[in-house]
Write a structure and sequence with these properties.
There is one protein chain. This protein has a 7-stranded mixed β-barrel. A hairpin with a 4-residue loop joins strand 6 and strand 7. By secondary structure, it is mostly beta strands. The longest helix is centred in the middle third of the chain and has 6 residues. It contains 2 helices and 8 strands, in the order E-E-E-H-E-E-E-E-H-E. The relative contact order is 0.27.
């Protein structure tokens, strides 16, 4: 009643990696674009950030890549809230899903750096 049955072998598997931490570097995917604000949301949970020894106020090296090419690489502050950085400054934070987010205070991070989400978009973070 909902349509023709599909062959499971015809399903396309997305190239997404589970979030991991190894030698102090946390890796994951950029899964969601918060279109209202241009913030990037990852699949990296807060507990992996803690496991990597990263705490609020720390500077972290952020690398965002698309299909193996680095499109953003810069140290950012890991903040509890947006008021810890100046207007227009980027930051790393924990979003409402308790995962890592990257944003631009009162700006659109995704538009400024031409970053999107989904298959092929990877995020790596380590303490600076």
């Amino acid at each position: 009643d909902v349509g023709a049955e599909l062959d499971p072998a015809s399903a396309v598997k997305l190239d997404l990696i589970p979030a991991t931490v190894e030698n102090g570097e946390v890796s994951g995917n950029i899964d969601i674009l918060d279109a209202r604000y241009g913030s990037l949301w990852s699949n990296i949970p807060k507990n992996l950030i803690e496991k990597a020894g990263i705490g609020y106020g720390d500077m972290v090296d952020v690398k965002i890549s698309y299909k193996g090419c680095i499109v953003f690489g810069c140290p950012l502050r890991f903040c509890r809230n947006f008021t810890e950085v100046s207007m227009g400054e980027p930051l790393v934070y924990i979003n409402s899903l308790l995962n890592v987010g990257i944003a631009l205070n009162q700006g659109n991070f995704a538009d400024v750096w031409h970053i999107r989400t989904g298959e092929g978009w990877k995020l790596k973070i380590k303490k600076h």
